[in-house]
Design brief:
By secondary structure, the chain is of the alpha/beta class. The protein has a single domain, classed as Alpha-Beta Complex (phage-related protein like fold). It contains 6 helices and 11 strands. The strands form 3 sheets. The protein has a 5-stranded mixed sheet with strand order 5-11-8-6-7. A hairpin with a 4-residue loop joins β9 and β10. α1 crosses α3. The longest helix has 26 residues. It is flat and about 80 Å long. The protein starts with 11 loop residues before the first helix and ends with a strand. The mean pLDDT is about 80.
Length: about 260
């Protein structure tokens, strides 16, 4: 009689692909970051990210006269790659008697756990921003002031990260503004358009009264090693451990691309 064993139902490679596929979807901030996979498989745990200063506008030229040269100015920032992971222990009985549920749920939650940690580190990178605005993100005028801090002449793809309670205050401020807005049910997209940004992300990870205004692409997620899943068994306890880990770094690559709201200079 052939017995079904827990190890027969666990394929680490398949599980890793499933977790990797859902990871970027689970990270709500991914659409607003640059995701760099070029360092996957490369040695070392410290990466150097360049930052270039603008060389200035072009100049008028005189026929036959050589043009001046500008020096390309570059600074570098060392970013340390970190490893994050989560493990789940489940009984063999649970796996064998609930094939469609237990393993899938364990791998799903490992993916969510890693995604949560990357989001935490993403916000930590936003916190390193040097541009600041004292006003809380609770009115359109306050957000427009933060946009002014970016001091850009061009339209930019902007995303605002704020606490859900501050989002409610922001919507309330628009309703009290009077006019046509007062009698209109606003969607999130409409609120974003009114305050001058492309998207608004509501997250409890941001403290009430604070916020981050980010130019899309100003933060990068550098993946050093893709998600991997390992399994092990305890023959005495008759349990199986699923452990997932990932090597990555988050980095603010554009100092002029993020404004912190609700903080003084």
């Amino acid at each position: 009689m052939v017995q079904t064993k827990a190890q027969d139902l666990l394929n680490p490679e398949v599980l890793a692909k499933e977790v990797a596929a859902q990871l970027d979807k689970a990270i709500r901030f991914t659409p607003y970051a640059v995701t760099d996979n070029t360092l996957v498989g490369q040695p070392g745990n410290t990466i150097t990210r360049p930052k270039y200063a603008y060389i200035g506008a072009a100049e008028d030229l005189t026929e036959g006269v050589a043009m001046d040269t500008a020096k390309l100015s570059m600074t570098t920032k060392a970013v340390t790659v970190k490893e994050t992971g989560k493990a789940v222990e489940i009984t063999e009985t649970a796996i064998i008697t609930n094939v469609d549920g237990t393993v899938a749920e364990a791998s799903r939650q490992i993916g969510l756990a890693i995604a949560d940690k990357i989001e935490i580190d993403y916000l930590a990178s936003l916190e390193t921003a040097v541009l600041k605005s004292a006003e809380a993100p609770t009115s359109a005028s306050n957000i427009l002031k933060a946009i002014d801090v970016l001091n850009s002449e061009d339209d930019q793809d902007l995303v605002l990260f704020i606490n859900p309670k501050d989002y409610s205050k922001l919507v309330e401020s628009l309703f009290t503004a009077g006019g046509a807005i007062q009698n209109t049910a606003l969607t999130s997209g409409q609120v974003a358009q009114i305050v001058g940004v492309s998207n608004i992300v509501r997250t409890k990870r941001v403290d009430e009264g604070k916020g981050y205004l980010q130019v899309t692409g100003a933060v990068e997620i550098v993946k050093k090693k893709a998600v991997s899943i390992a399994t092990d068994t305890d023959i005495l306890a008759r349990t199986v451990v699923l452990a997932g880990n990932m090597h990555y770094a988050t980095n603010l690559k554009n100092d002029n691309g993020v404004v912190k709201l609700g903080v003084t200079a």
